[in-house]
Amino acid sequence: MIHEYSPDKFSVVENATTQEGARTMALDPKTHQVFTVTAKFGPPPAATAQQPHPRPSILPDSFVVLVLGK
Predict the structure, then answer these.
(1) Measuring CA to CA, how many Å separate 11 from each of 2, 8, 33, 40, 48?
(2) What 3-state DSSP class applies to 16?
(3) Each residue of 16-45: pLDDT tens digit?
(4) CA distances from 40 to 1, 53, 58, 63 (A)
(5) pLDDT per residue over 46-69, tens digit each?
(6) Domain segments of the chain: what residues?
(7) Cα–Cα distance between 2 and 13 in angstroms, integer?
(8) Number of H helices and number of E strands within the chain?
(9) The pLDDT of residue 11
(10) Residue 22 has what DSSP assignment?
(11) How far is CA 13 from the centre of its chain?
């Protein structure tokens, strides 16, 4: 978590551990809760000429919304 003191001054307040893949976030400014989403991943498919670095597949029914707050 980062606090903005001014437009050009920031400070790390806290590091939060989340589930693998959780990156996109939204902040509720009233409650100060952070929302992020992720899912569990399976193995990536085999590489091909068209996809030399394939992404892992998302496992069915594993999508979750994580809520971070105090």
Answers:
(1) 6, 10, 18, 31, 43
(2) coil
(3) 888 988 987 899 999 989 999 999 999 999
(4) 24, 19, 6, 7
(5) 999 999 999 999 999 999 999 998
(6) 2-43+52-68
(7) 5
(8) 0, 5
(9) 96
(10) -
(11) 18
